[in-house]
Amino acid sequence: MVHHELAATSLTEIKASVIDLAILPWGATEPHNLHLPYGTDCLASTSISIDAAKKAALQGVRCMVLPAIPLGSQNPGQTDMPLCIHARYETQKAILTDIVASLQRQGFRKLVIVNGHGGNSFKNMIRDLAVDYPDFTVVIANWYDIIPQEGYFENRDDHAGEMETSVIMHYFPELVLPLSEAGEGTETRFSIDSLNDKTAWTPRHWTKATNDTGVGNPKLATAEKGKRYADVVSDRLCKLFIELTTKELY
């Protein structure tokens, strides 16, 4: 059996394989409205990465999906929620640096981060690593930004809404509580127009911005919508994986 997930793969299988590309799902540990599991971001980014790796394998490119990192950057207020874990920029950078150093020592030269948490920001870390490891390329893909939601979902999803709920219903239906248990994901926006229209930015205070930790109504979510959306996202990621393996950057 060919595995695409490192957690399910033995050293014997690794030694018998040629791994073309390492994939790192990155999520968070936080509540997602009232009906989704705390591991939603890790579960979604890992599952979509595995689907993309399977598709790439059919075209001769072998990708290995590393264990997801469950440490996300949280807004103020989120850390007041029970068992929500906030990881500082310095913590995330140290973890990513150790992963890059390990892979580089083993002969790998490329890593794709498939991010599932909107609060994470990797660009400055990746720039620093490009200076420190000039022969190593780190690429970041936010899976939820690859394909527009329009045409797939009725309600726009910001956090734990229709899109995320549908995707988790597709991959892990047993982990989703009945949608009758879910909050409506109503957002209380800033009173300052310039923050709402993106003239400027500051993090939302989560306990003031939302009543149920969700932003976006999940009530119309279905597993079928999640499968349709995840399929096109994993198609795009598959294309990325193949291009990174078969082409130079310039």
Largest sheet: 4 strands, parallel
Return Rg in Å: 19 Å
What share of residues are in beta strands?
5-15%
- The helix-and-strand class reads alpha/beta
Distance between the termini: 36 Å
**Strand order in the sheet with the most strands:** 2-1-3-4
**Which CATH class is shown?**
Alpha Beta
Uncertain residue ranges: none
Strands, count: 4
Order of H and E elements: HEHEHEHEHHHHH
Whole-number mean pLDDT: 97
- Our count of helices gives 9
CATH superfamily: Creatininase
Instruction: List the domain count as a whole number.
Output: 1
Shape: globular
What CATH calls the topology is Rossmann fold
Features of the shown structure:
single chain, 250 residues, alpha/beta, Rossmann fold, 9 helices, 4 strands, globular
What does this structure look like?
Helix 6 crosses helix 9. The chain is of the alpha/beta class and about 250 residues long. It has one domain: Creatininase (Rossmann fold, 3-Layer(aba) Sandwich). Strands 2-1-3-4 form a 4-stranded parallel beta sheet, with helices on both faces. The two termini are about 35 Å apart. It has helices spanning about 10-15, 40-55, 90-105, 125-130, 145, 160-170, 195, 205-210, 225-245, and strands at about 20-25, 65, 110-115, 135-140. It comes from Paludibacter jiangxiensis. One of its GO terms (biological process) is riboflavin biosynthetic process. Keywords: Hydrolase, Metal-binding, Zinc. It holds the Pfam family Creatininase. Belongs to the creatininase superfamily.
